[in-house]
């Protein structure tokens, strides 16, 4: 199976992966270098996707040879699933001799053993779920939760990190960064600096920011009052989120991680379409203005209400 290239996409594909594993499929995954760390709690083998076409084809051919040795019927059925819908990803599978299921998109249907029309106007989780249904030959209700499983080593690393920093459970995590744009518009809420400096300290909880590669200087410059935890892998980041009282995030991968481990999430959206990309889970609150960003006061009120609901009453 070829995974998508973004943290949010891989996280939203989790229910489909788990559904196939529960059905008896032996998953062999290829994805970005961080994917193995993110999915370590599930125990699926994950190879880092090679950077060149020849390297990717060699990877896929090697996996095909291993599967044929273990299963003589491997080449007689659909034996690969391509979650990306680019032409190049389908071409890699075809040149490796695999019989692939994927979305009919960008004229790549001739490269696939079975092409499924991509759902239009549907949430990305449902798009991936549709491919799983096509492979299994049966539909199923959409899952309520993403169900990211945390590896023991990541739980231990998160605990040790909190102990070293003197951080008690019940902290607030903020993700003020966002990769990419939506329809050419920035996905970064401009109210984050004031929220972190003026609003969150009122609650008497530690405020954590976990910058990704290249975000460290920006975090230090704009969020000097927060506790910055740099160099944290995605698996440990997810474990840290599982100990938090609340996360406040732009439309970006770490927000999906919070939802995946069941942490209450305030998802601050501006240009992004929540019907397609919202974080998935019962604890997700969408904060979005009328076609624009929400006001600082609205986010502050949501923080207050969410934390108050967690406080035991005497």
Distance between the termini: 51 Å
Rg computed from alpha carbons, rounded to a whole number of angstroms: 21 Å
CATH class of the largest domain: Alpha Beta
Q: Mean pLDDT, rounded to whole units?
A: 93
Largest sheet: 6 strands, parallel
- Biggest β-sheet: strands ordered side by side in the sheet: 10-9-6-11-12-13
Structural class: alpha/beta
Give the H and E element order: HHEHEHEHEEHHEEEHEHEHEHEHEH
Quick one: CATH superfamily of the largest domain? Glycogen Phosphorylase B
> Judging by the overall fold, what is the CATH architecture of the largest domain?
3-Layer(aba) Sandwich
Number of domains: 2
Q: Uncertain spans, ≥5 residues at pLDDT below 50?
A: none
CATH topology of the largest domain: Rossmann fold
Please sum up the structure shown.
Helix content is 39%, strand content 13%. By secondary structure, it is α/β, with parallel strands linked by helices. It folds into two domains: 130 residues, Glycogen Phosphorylase B (Rossmann fold, 3-Layer(aba) Sandwich); 159 residues, 3-Layer(aba) Sandwich (Rossmann fold), CATH 3.40.50.
Which properties best describe this structure?
13 helices; six-stranded parallel β-sheet; Rossmann fold; 314 residues; alpha/beta
Topology, please?
Blueprint: H1 7-12, H2 14-22, E1 29-31, H3 35-38, E2 46-48, H4 53-70, E3 80-81, H5 87-95, E4 100-104, E5 114-117, H6 124-136, H7 152-165, E6 172-175, E7 181-182, E8 185-186, H8 192-199, E9 207-209, H9 216-222, E10 227-228, H10 234-242, E11 246-249, H11 253-260, E12 265-268, H12 274-277, E13 284-287, H13 296-310
């Amino acid at each position: 199976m070829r995974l998508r290239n973004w943290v949010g996409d891989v996280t939203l594909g989790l229910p489909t992966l788990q559904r196939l594993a529960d059905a008896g499929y032996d998953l062999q995954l290829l994805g970005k270098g961080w994917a193995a760390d993110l999915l370590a709690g599930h125990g699926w083998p994950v190879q880092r996707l090679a950077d060149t076409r020849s390297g990717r084809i060699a990877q896929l051919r090697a996996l095909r040879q291993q599967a044929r040795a273990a299963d003589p019927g491997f080449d007689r059925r659909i034996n690969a699933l391509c979650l990306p819908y680019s032409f190049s990803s389908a071409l890699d599978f075809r040149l490796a001799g695999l019989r692939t299921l994927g979305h009919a998109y960008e004229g790549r249907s001739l490269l696939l053993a079975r092409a499924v029309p991509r759902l239009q106007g549907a949430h990305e989780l449902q798009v991936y779920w549709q491919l799983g249904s096509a492979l299994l030959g049966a539909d199923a209700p959409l899952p309520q939760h993403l169900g990211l499983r945390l590896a023991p080593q990541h739980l231990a690393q998160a605990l040790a990190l909190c102990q070293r920093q003197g951080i008690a459970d019940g902290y607030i995590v903020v993700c003020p960064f966002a990769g990419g744009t939506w329809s050419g518009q920035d996905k970064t809420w401009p109210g984050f600096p004031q929220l972190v400096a003026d609003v969150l300290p009122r609650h008497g909880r530690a405020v954590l920011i976990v910058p990704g590669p290249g975000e460290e200087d920006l975090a230090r410059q704009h969020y000097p009052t927060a506790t910055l935890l740099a160099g944290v892998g995605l698996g440990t980041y997810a474990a840290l989120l599982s100990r938090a009282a609340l996360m406040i995030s732009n439309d970006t991968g770490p927000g999906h991680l919070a939802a995946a481990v069941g942490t209450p999430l305030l998802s601050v959206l501006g240009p992004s379409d929540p019907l397609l990309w919202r974080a998935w889970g019962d604890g997700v609150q969408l904060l979005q203005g009328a076609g624009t960003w929400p006001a600082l006061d609205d986010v502050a009120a949501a923080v207050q209400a969410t934390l108050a609901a967690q406080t035991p009453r005497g």
